[in-house]
Amino acid sequence: MEQFNYSALHLHAVLAEGCFGSPDYAYKAVLKEHTILSQLSHPRIVQYLGYFQTTSSWNIVLEFAERGNLASFLDRRSAEGAFLNQHTVMAKFSDIADGLVYLHQRNVIHRDLKPANVLICVDNRLKLADFGISKIMHENDLNRTIVGTPLYMAPEVARGKDYDYKSDVWALGIIFYELCMLQHPFVDGLLKGRKQKFSVPQIDCQRLGYSTALQLLCDMMIQKDLTKRWTLENILTQFHVLVLMNRTDS
């Protein structure tokens, strides 16, 4: 763990400011992110470089992602009506899934997976970021704390029920749908406060020239019933992602 000299650092951009509600919460979030990130090393996880302190703050230093985040990318594509081809959809899905598999193997639940927390590097590869509310799981741990972003929160989390790594799989399914359709599957109902049935959303595979297998992949992840929602490792074992990157037939 390297401690940086603040004067030697160059600020590229402010990622967030004043969004934690209280100084104590902000400190705990930064400390948790430092604790988790300092134990992780993977090409699809934002690289932890070190930390520095000032008289009024405690800060972590991360690699710079030159191309911003996936949320901004999807917003631009949606505004332009520029849908992604299947190869690009699957490549980006694969990057996120690879990072998530690594986290789960290291007993970490992200708990706030969403496009804004997926960074895009100069080579267009994706990396997971923002581990301020993530949790390192221990044997027999139960999770009932309602945390995360409502639009990407699994039903069991929102209801205060027990949840595990599959809550991240739900969020990944929502992101996958957004990669395909450039919109959130449930945003209208959630923003209007309507009770959601969370039926599996339909991808317009025929119009977009996608393999119908992409709908099957979506079905595996966006399942309200935990017993029907697949684990990420099982999805990647059964699903030939590399094949789908280069195939569009149904």
What does this structure look like?
The chain is mainly alpha-helical and 250 residues long. The protein folds into 2 domains: 6-62; 70-244, Transferase(Phosphotransferase) domain 1 (Transferase(Phosphotransferase), domain 1, Orthogonal Bundle), CATH 1.10.510.10. Helix content is 38%, strand content 8%. The chain has helices at 23-37, 70-80, 86-105, 155-158, 166-181, 187-191, 205-208, 213-221, 232-238, 241-244, and strands spanning 48-53, 58-62, 108-109, 118-120, 126-128, 135-136. Strands 1-2 form a two-stranded antiparallel ribbon. A two-stranded antiparallel ribbon has the order 3-6. A two-stranded antiparallel sheet has the order 4-5. It is globular, with a radius of gyration of 18 Å. The mean pLDDT is 87. GO terms for molecular function: ATP binding; protein serine/threonine kinase activity. Belongs to the protein kinase superfamily. NEK Ser/Thr protein kinase family. NIMA subfamily. InterPro entries: Kinase-like_dom_sf, NEK_Ser/Thr_kinase_NIMA, Prot_kinase_dom, Ser-Thr/Tyr_kinase_cat_dom, Ser/Thr_kinase_AS.
